[in-house]
Amino acid sequence: MDRVILALEECDYVNEPVCAPADVTELFVLPNIFGQVNRTIVLMFVAALIVIALLYFAFRKPSLKPSKFQLSIESIVGYVRDEVAVGIIGPEGVKYFPYLLSIFLFILIGNLFEVTPLVNFPITSRMAIPAFLAIVTWLIFVIVGFAKNGFSYFTDIVWPKSVPVAMRWLVGIIEFFSIFFIRPFSLAVRLFANMVAGHVMLSLLLVTGYVFVINIGEIPVKGATGLLWFALGLGIYLFEIMVAVLQAYIFTLLSAVYIQTSVHPEH
What we know:
The chain has one domain (38-263). It is 71% helix and 2% strand. It is built from eight helices and two strands; from the N terminus they run αββααααααα. A hairpin with a 2-residue loop joins β1 and β2 (37-38). α1 packs across α7 (165-214) and α3 (68-89) crosses α8 (220-263). The longest helix has 50 residues, at 165-214. The protein is globular and about 75 Å long.
């Protein structure tokens, strides 16, 4: 956020209603730390370590009278296992539960970096991370589909027997592109686009409010409106916490749904 403030302080805050950098990539391009290791890579490993630490410290010494921390983590784990993995996939969902729990917690932590002081950067706003997770999900449900159903997994997609013969070729083409191409693309873009939009709005509103307020002597009326921008930014700050949780849940939920369609293609 400091780099954004420096960039915005150089803009024309006298004539512009919202002070924005000339290139919004300044919100996302982060400096390298050790050679080619940039801040995004570091935060990615930090997110993974936080997930490991949460699960380790919650379950290393389980108690019959759990602490609030243990109870909170148990609630998350139980919900993902019972309502997402088993609830959507069925009894076989237990096998996919570790993966679903891992991506949920990793995406959640990565999203919450957006509203974390001194970080203010969701790692999921870099397309490579949502794309990688979407490809992993895609590989799992495609491999499971062929492993469970053989080559009929593919033939049932391109020639669906439940559809009238005259329409099978058209529905087959739509299903083929939907399952093998659109699913991973939409899964990645949905997460990426939501986090980018939130990050841009939050950064511009909060920093615009800050820049206008500190320059209130030069722009008295507009400087006062900076308080409005800042208040709106705080409102979006709270909203983005909800978005962070919701997007992690949606990504995990859709991953479970896609796996379910491979495990039980007849459904």
